[in-house]
Amino acid sequence: MQANRIVTTPPVPQTLDISHLEHLARAMRLNGQPVALFRAVHEVAASVIGFRLLTIMSYDAGREEVERAYTNMPDVYPVGGRKKKRGTAWARQVLHDLEPFRAETPQGILEAFDDHTVMTGMGLGSILNIPIAYNGVCIGTMNLTHREGWYTERHEALGLLIGSFLAPALIAGNTVSAGSSDSL
């Protein structure tokens, strides 16, 4: 994997292998966190799952809201953006039951997200939300969005494995944008 270049969507997703996990493990050990870890997750998720939009959100259970900690599209979805998630079916599934959410069509996105017009307006038609948990509690989410019909059940399992490496960064509560000069 090249450290200086991030591929957003490969022509054909690869299979997750030990080299991807080694890349994530090495990134956790580097100085400059959470940048190094977010970058590595970005690279591996792009290679193995694929996406056009990637965001990583921290979760504040007391306020029942998520806050964007990382984005590959800071002009559209800036770091620090917050969303209330109180009482939604999505919140129950992802934030409380710790189960991935997958919508394969724009209709599924419309039913779950207030900002569906922004996503579908960018040609995004499927989404995969991965809960990041530690000690039985959701601490954030990894959100991948792509063209309609992109995500499958297999991507959920891959996302859970890749996303688990985000726990230290989300526990630390740091934020970074793909567009910031010190992050990439």
From TrEMBL:
Which residues constitute the signal peptide according to the record? Answer: none
Annotated GAF domain residues: 36-170
One short Pfam family name for this protein? GAF_2
Q: Which InterPro entries match?
A: GAF, GAF-like_dom_sf
Tell me the protein's name: GAF domain-containing protein
